Amino acid sequence: MGSDFVRALLVAPHPDDEVLGAGIWLRRHRNRELHVVHLTDGSPLDMQDARAHNMASREEYAEVRRKEVHAALALIPIPARNCVQLPFVDKETYKSLVDVVEAVDEVICRVRPDLVLAPAYEGGHPDHDAAAFAVWMVSRRRSFASLEFPLYHAGQDGEMVVSKFAGGGEAEQVLELSPEECQAKRAMLECFPSQAEFLSRFPIGSERFRPVPARDFTKPPHPAPLLYERWGWGISGEEWRQHAQEAVSRLRPEMKQR
After folding, report:
1. What is the mean pLDDT of residues 63-78?
2. Cα 133 from chain centre
3. How is residue 234 annotated by DSSP?
4. Which of 83, 153, 180, 246 could crosslink 166 through cysteines, CB 3.0-4.6 Å?
5. How is 115-146 classified by DSSP, letter by letter?
6. Integer Cα distance of 219 and 17 in angstroms
7. Averaged pLDDT for residues 84-108
8. φ, ψ for residue 12 (rounded to 5)?
9. What ranges make up the beta strands (E) of the chain?
10. Is the pLDDT of residue 138 over 70?
């Protein structure tokens, strides 16, 4: 399962996504060179999450999340020097997809991974889809293997479906966790007390991966309304896809030249 590599990079939209989707995969490969890049600091502009944790500023909440993820990754271990924080804001990445692609490309050029992991395009969170988009676009420029993992998406009845690929798991590889690994993953997730309620909705017994399939980011990832639409975040899938189309149009001529 993605074992033929020397150096891997995981592209995480937010602190905790790397552990949630691939914590034990990373732990099983801790003898390799592992890197993590976070697109955002996990602190939205709307301050809803920050206020829920009695924090007075977005920056204060971001610092809490930064300390949490460093504690979690230290259990793998992945050193802080192998973690990069990009300057994009939680829930806002879709507005800057060209810049997100260029920033991820810069990290990939510096790290030079053989393998890149990222969330699947599944319409659960616009930042998850931005990470999938960025890795897909950079893969048109650079040579590396890639795997994707599921986080969450909307089911047919609007429920949140977790840790399963939208539309089925064709070609998926299931990493079954041993009891000791379940305990290790639980310990990693417990490093995120600010996310405890949300993370409690996810099973711990397995992680799922598959090679990234051909993508068309101008089309919805599945027929049902997207989860972030159902949650009323003020972001529509149509708007997200319009930004993706504009980014593809702007990046395509440059990508042909490289």
Report:
1. 97
2. 11
3. S
4. 153
5. EEEEE---SS-HHHHHHHHHHHHHHTTS--EE
6. 24
7. 97
8. -110, 130
9. 7-12, 33-40, 83-88, 115-119, 145-149, 152-154, 160-162, 173-176, 206-211
10. yes
* Tens of pLDDT, residues 37-54: 999 999 999 998 899 999
Strand pairing report for 7-12 and 33-40: parallel
Instruction: Using CA atoms of 254, 217, 166, 91 in order, give the dihedral in degrees to the nearest 10.
Output: 90
Measure Cα distances from 129 to 19, 105, 123, 125, 148 in Å. 17, 16, 7, 7, 11
Write out pLDDT tens, residues 185-218.
999 999 999 999 999 999 999 999 999 998 899 9
Cα separation, 38 vs 61, in Å, equals 15
pTM of the model: 0.95
Q: Please tell me the predicted confidence (pLDDT) of residue 253.
A: 62
Q: Which two tokens stand for residue 9?
A: 């990079």
User: Who has greater pLDDT, 1 or 223?
Assistant: 223
Tokens 């030079």 belong to 112
**CA dihedral sign of residues 186, 230, 119, 82:** negative
Report the alpha-carbon distance of residue 43 to residue 125 in Å, rounded: 14
177 with 206: CB under 8 angstroms?
yes
C-alpha distances in angstroms, 109 versus 104, 137, 253? 9, 14, 19
